[in-house]
Recover the amino acids of this structure.
């Protein structure tokens, strides 16, 4: 295994508050030294001149659809991790809405085995209910033993509230985290985008904000009633933000994430009827976008995840029939720097905390920090480099990015995972 010397980087570690210029030595898959620049001598098989670059813990994306097994024309474990590496993501949580769904120990084991040689560390979320059907509980104990660290029916809410309550009480005892897709399916039925001004202009059935808000309220009520934690996925509305803020104030053990498209884009992007801007929850209003930014700044929202959801160009070609979802791992850091750091909403350290340290802490994995003896999972990026998102130059199988053609600031130059250089721009 290579010995890597990273020379003269700005080392930023949200877990300790470290922010200094120095060198990082990587040996045998671990961080061997964090030294003042030029302090440690020795021979390295790979030397990276990191002057002008930030070296930070590899990003932890706690919401990724790898589509494997069953839909590998969209993405697979290897291609998804290649895209992750290009975005500085070294650890990811894959969602279970594959075909078949990840509701058996054998499937969880298969995913984890296939991921061992990939360019990012893959952690597995299993189903809460059999086949994502929302009614019959999966065997969480067996799934945990197979290696799943979280459970969710993501892509759908758990329809049977009693089954969800049972899972929320069982998960902490198993060392798992419930990550909840919050949606009222009856309110959302048939909707293609946010219900509002743009949906009316286009004559398209909308999904009201109340669909998400009702689901968020249910999950918070269960967490409060049973005294158990819950993590709320892909928050997109101002009301859900307020529900989470109030719950935290009351001491409810709730954490929450949002995605870059919710703090950078609005429903106005759908006026061209381009299905690459269709996802679930949908892009909301400017008022919602600003509420998401405020919630990131004040700590109401703990993490930034991508909800990376690949689809083929053929599927996305028909606005009315296209499946929901957009890709995001290669653009997430730049989107955060562009929309949050440059305008002064968050410091760079705060953004890195929400993209590495916080999600690692929520999931209970060894990631999100730079420490001697710890895993050598790092991202090196230029925080000032502007680049234009060209879908054809992305590294996964699919091209459905909502940031296509946008100029973003912040470019990943190197990614190291397990002590191995897995991406170099």
């Amino acid at each position: 295994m290579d010995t890597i010397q990273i020379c003269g980087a700005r080392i930023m570690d949200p877990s300790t508050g470290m922010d200094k210029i120095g060198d990082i030595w990587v040996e045998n898959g671990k961080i061997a030294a964090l030294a003042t620049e030029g302090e440690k001598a020795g021979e390295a098989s790979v030397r990276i001149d990191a002057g002008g670059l930030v070296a930070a813990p590899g990003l932890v994306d706690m919401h990724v659809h790898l589509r494997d097994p069953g839909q590998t024309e969209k993405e697979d474990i290897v291609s998804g991790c290649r895209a992750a590496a290009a975005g500085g993501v070294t650890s990811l949580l894959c969602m279970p809405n594959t075909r078949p769904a990840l509701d058996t120990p054998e499937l969880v084991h298969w995913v984890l085995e296939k991921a061992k040689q990939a360019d990012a560390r893959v952690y597995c979320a299993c189903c809460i209910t059999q086949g994502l059907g929302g009614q019959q509980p999966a065997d969480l104990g067996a799934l945990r033993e197979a290696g799943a660290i979280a459970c969710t029916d993501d892509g759908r809410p758990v329809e049977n509230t009693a089954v969800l309550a049972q899972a929320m009480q069982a998960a902490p005892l198993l060392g798992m985290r419930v990550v909840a897709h919050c949606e009222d399916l009856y309110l959302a039925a048939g909707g293609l985008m946010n219900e509002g001004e743009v949906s009316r202009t286009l004559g398209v059935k909308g999904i009201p904000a109340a669909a998400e808000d009702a689901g968020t309220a249910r999950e918070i009520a269960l967490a409060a009633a049973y005294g158990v934690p819950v993590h709320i996925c892909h928050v997109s509305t101002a009301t859900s933000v307020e529900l989470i803020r109030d719950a935290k104030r009351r001491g409810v053990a709730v954490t929450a994430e949002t995605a870059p498209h919710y703090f950078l884009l609005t429903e106005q992007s759908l006026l061209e009827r381009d299905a690459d801007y269709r996802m679930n929850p949908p892009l909301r209003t400017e008022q919602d976008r600003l509420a998401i930014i405020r919630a990131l700044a004040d700590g109401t929202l703990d993490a930034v995840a991508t909800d990376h959801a690949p689809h083929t160009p053929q599927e996305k070609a028909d606005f009315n029939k296209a499946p929901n979802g957009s890709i995001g791992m290669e653009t997430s850091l730049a989107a955060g720097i562009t929309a949050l750091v440059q305008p002064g909403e968050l410091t760079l350290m705060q953004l890195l905390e929400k993209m590495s340290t916080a999600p690692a802490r929520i999931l209970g994995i060894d990631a999100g920090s730079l420490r001697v003896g710890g895993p050598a999972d790092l991202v090196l990026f230029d925080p000032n480099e502007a680049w234009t998102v060209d879908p054809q130059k992305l590294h996964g199988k699919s091209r459905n990015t909502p940031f296509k053609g946008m100029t973003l600031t912040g470019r990943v130059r190197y990614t190291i995972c397990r002590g191995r250089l897995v991406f170099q721009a």
